[in-house]
UniProtKB/TrEMBL annotation:
<keyword id="KW-0812">Transmembrane</keyword>
<protein>
    <submittedName>
        <fullName>Sodium-dependent glucose transporter 1A-like protein</fullName>
    </submittedName>
</protein>
<dbReference type="InterPro" id="IPR036259">
    <property type="entry name" value="MFS_trans_sf"/>
</dbReference>
<keyword id="KW-1133">Transmembrane helix</keyword>
<feature type="transmembrane region" description="Helical">
    <location>
        <begin position="145"/>
        <end position="163"/>
    </location>
</feature>
<keyword id="KW-0762">Sugar transport</keyword>
<feature type="transmembrane region" description="Helical">
    <location>
        <begin position="83"/>
        <end position="100"/>
    </location>
</feature>
<feature type="transmembrane region" description="Helical">
    <location>
        <begin position="105"/>
        <end position="125"/>
    </location>
</feature>
<keyword id="KW-0813">Transport</keyword>
<keyword id="KW-0472">Membrane</keyword>
<feature type="transmembrane region" description="Helical">
    <location>
        <begin position="61"/>
        <end position="77"/>
    </location>
</feature>
Amino acid sequence: MEFMMKDRAGIAIPGPSLLDFQISVNSTLKEIGYLLPARSLGYSFGSVLGGFVPQKMDKQPIIISCMTLSAIFLGFMPWNRTLIGLIATAVLKGLFLGIFEVLYLFFGIGAFIAPLITAPYLLPISEKKGNKTLINNYTPEDVKIHYPYAYVAIYAIIFGLLFKKKK
């Protein structure tokens, strides 16, 4: 259950925080829109690489390493201040997650709860005052999405290190 939550939350958390990433790296909506396909590209490459792991090889060290590295890159994502750095981090996160998922296939509730974890830290898009809608002008210092990313990454690292092979 713990792995399922981390896995799906780690995949779903960038979606609701995309606009905050846009502010954080000072990019346009079109530019930040490359983040999710870039992560998927890394995931695809990781899935192909994971298929080359020999069947008789002990997969536990690879699973633990990939899950831990995926969690570390997830934790680094909100700390990037450049679009290229953010996209590179997302590609690497996707790569290790792709390898991991090929070796340990499952689905969970993490995709459902990721928006719930992220929502309290997202910046409001606009505020209503009377009959007027005010658009807020935020700076990168206003962005607080590093907190939910840290929660999910720390959770994943802890359970990744505690992962034990059942006999």
